Amino acid sequence: MARPFKEILSSGEFVVTSEIGPPKGTNIEKMVHHIELLSDKVHGLNVTDNQSSVMRLSSLAACHIIKDNGGEPILQMTCRDRNRMALQSDLISAHVLGIHNVLCLTGDHISLGDHKGGKQVFDLDSVQLVATVKALEQGKDIGGNELDGAVEFCVGATATPEADRMDSQLLKFRKKVKAGAKFFQTQAVYDMDMLKKFMEYARQFEVKILAGILVLISPGMAKYLNANVAGVTVPQELINEMAGAEKGKRLQKGIEIATRQIKQIKEENICPGVHIMAIGKEEIVPEILACL
Amino acid sequence: MAEFEPKLIAFCCSNCATSAANVCEAIGLSTPGNVDVVRIPCTGRVDILHLLKAFEIGADGAYVAGCSDGNCQFRDGNIKAKRRVARAKKLLDEVGVGGDRLEMYNMSASMGPEFAKMARKMTERIRELGPSPLRKK
Amino acid sequence: MIIAEQKPIQEIKSMIAGYQKVLVVGCGTCVTVCMAGGEKEVGIIASTLRMALKLDGKEPEVIEDCIRRQCEWEFVDELKEKIEGVDAVLSTACGVGVQALAERFGDKPVYPALNTTSMGMPKEHGFWIETCRGCGDCGLGKFGGVCPIARCSKGLLNGPCGGSQDGKCEVDKEMDCGWQLIYERLNSLGQLDQIEDIVQPKDWSTDRDKGQRRIIREDVKV
Q1: Is residue C169 part of a domain?
Q2: How far is the CA of C83 from the CAs of B62, C25, C89, C92, C100, in angstroms?
Q3: Residue A145 burial (CB < 10 Å; 0-12/13-18/19+)?
Q4: Going by beta carbons, is chain B in contact with chain A, meaning 3 or more pairs sit under 8 Å apart?
Q5: Relative to the CA of A24, which of A83, B12, B30, C187 has its CA 20 to 30 Å away?
Q6: For range B70-88, the mean pLDDT
Q7: How confident is the model at residue A85, as a pLDDT?
């Protein structure tokens, strides 16, 4: 049995989480393989929620599978696809299934995904979702009605250390803390100086911040991130470093960079932990973890 | 069968294109007889409805002739006309008449020979396209 | 004002294809200002429609008119005689006008020539922008006069999402991030403290979620 994530967070250990992407369809073979590979190597395993607005197997179902495999799942919940009724209902369901960690996110806009004409919801926003979890923990839903049995969660949220308009992002960050978020997993960070700057501010709050490490697999990916993903800036030196690697050895270079940055974060005590994302290439995560 | 002679309507700015048409005549160049010139104070006055009506009443093609870029006496009438021609072309495509039957040209008052050339060029284009599908019906 | 834009002519054509005599009727208010359904646009729509139908081998009579407002009975009633003489009506008003005609002239089919898009204003000539969603519980006082429901693409109430970059929205790099506008505006007013507290989930019962919204006031009845 995995140790509860809540315990790890307060233990003072360097926290390591990673991420699983559910399949689009019923073939869970690859996902289960990734779960088996990572469950006992990380402190928590996130499952994305219709990531990038692409419809997939639910985060809840995948978290349940992680639980069955002895792992510690972190349920990602976005506000895009469910109204306050459905979100609360799923939170209760998660608790009943033994899932006690939740990461509250806004969610990408529906027009960025594979159901562009769908009606998005956003009945709640991420701050309100955090507050909703806290309300359910008090034994009441957000309509003020009594629950027959309260939920228990370790609640997290996200932050963007490399955002270009930091002031307004920090407003949101403060509100998430105020709403009751206990841990943060950040958007991918590549510029350690920007991460340090963010942490100088964030350290005043009693929350655990896990730096997002997204493994680069090619120089093209770095350029794509810079051009298309808000709040992510890959410095030119890293792009050059990736481009300098021989073809066929670029993934290895990406692993090397990720490893180096994780070491730096740990040794210089920049953040109390990291969240490693290797979208579609989860097999490489153990190799990165070996550095710790 | 005789060669198809397209009927064209030209909306000509009185500051440039109409003068060019006059120069054209003065120097003995003939403007094609198939082009009916509608003289307007500035191409900025051309409305999308004017352009559509030309086709509704049976023209095979139409064009707007305005001042060269930066030379409109009313500052940007020719630029506005260009945008309206673009919208009217789209509407004509949607309708099924074909946006290619409509064009915008720019010129200066002294360009008599060019005026005649332009009229012939548009006539050629429409001849290739054939009679307006509205006339065939 | 209400903002609308013209439907594709082929769609309009398919709606009225079977009728012999059609009245295209414009509205002299919002859709005139947004250049989608006023007198001038009635002319354009009627003209394109006549040509499109002719190409199909049909030559119905398409007549034109435009009234001051299609959303008030006193103006709508002016159309009585004309509408009696046609087989169908094509309204170039917003959805409100189309429904007013349909309700007033129960035995005539009425079709929309426009897609009604939003409530807003012309930001500049040829550029109309939505600024109000009519949620029924205006919070503009709190948000510095910039509506997060209408101007944030996700309608968020507690700050920008992570998709905000360079002050623009993740949906479209040409679209301002509503939350960045709110933040900057309150910052310049020295009122940022207004949004420091958590805004509670919105009560959507004033929106459409209680069904068609109605206001009944005895004091102004005649």
Answers
A1: yes
A2: 35, 10, 7, 15, 13
A3: exposed
A4: no
A5: A83
A6: 93
A7: 98
Residues C93 and C188 in one domain: no
Instruction: Answer yes or no: is pLDDT of B137 > 90.
Output: no
pLDDT of residue B113: 79
Report the domain count for chain B: 1
Whether A235 shows a pLDDT value over 90: the answer reads yes
Confidence at residue A15, expressed as pLDDT on a 0 to 100 scale: 97
Q: Do A125 and C187 touch (CB under 8 A)?
A: no
* Short-list C170, C134, B16, CA closest to A227: C170
**One domain, residues C32 and C74:** yes
- C104-117 pLDDT tens trace: 999 999 999 999 99
Is the Cβ pair B95, C40 closer than 8 Å?
no
The mean pLDDT of chain A is: 96
Q: Is residue B3 part of a domain?
A: no
Minimal CA–CA distance to B86: which of B48, B44, B124, B40? B48
- Lookup: tokens for C77: 């009633």
CATH number at residue A144: 3.20.20.220
Total domains in chain A come to 1
- Cα separation of B126 and B99, whole Å? 11
Tell me: do C155 and C66 sit in the same domain: no
Count how many domains chain C has. Answer: 2
| Identity of residue C102 | A
Asked which of A174-178, A222-226, B33-37, C101-105 is least confident by mean pLDDT, the reply is B33-37
User: What do you get for the CA distance between the two ends of chain A, in Å?
Assistant: 22
For chain A, list the contacting chains (3+ Cβ pairs, <8 Å): C
Residue A262 lies in a domain: no
Q: Check whether residue C73 and residue C172 sit in a common domain.
A: no
**Residue-wise over B73-107: b if at least 16 C-beta within 10 A, else e?**
eeeebbbbbbebbeebbebbebbbbbbebbbbbbb
In the chain, the amino acid numbered C90 is L
Q: Which residues of C120-158 are buried (b: 16+ CB within 10 A; e: fewer)?
A: beeeeeeebeebebebeeeeeebbbebbbbbbbbbbbbb
- Domain assignment present for residue A277? The answer is yes
Tell me which residue has tokens 């309260």: A150
Mean pLDDT (chain C) is: 96
Q: Are A217 and A281 in contact (CB under 8 A)?
A: yes
Least confident range from A52-61, A263-272, B29-38, B55-64: namely B29-38
Which tens digits make up the pLDDT trace of A61-104?
999 999 999 999 999 999 999 999 999 999 999 999 999 999 99
- List the domain range (segments joined by +) for residue A156: 5-216+269-283
**Prediction ipTM score:** 0.94
Count of Cβ atoms closer than 10 Å to residue C59 Cβ? 11
Give the closest of C9, C10, C54 to B137, CB-based: C54
Residue C200: list chain A partners with CB under 8 A: 128
Residue-number span of the structural domain to which C193 is assigned: 133-206
Judged by CB atoms closer than 8 Å, whether chains meet at B52 and C8 is answered as: no
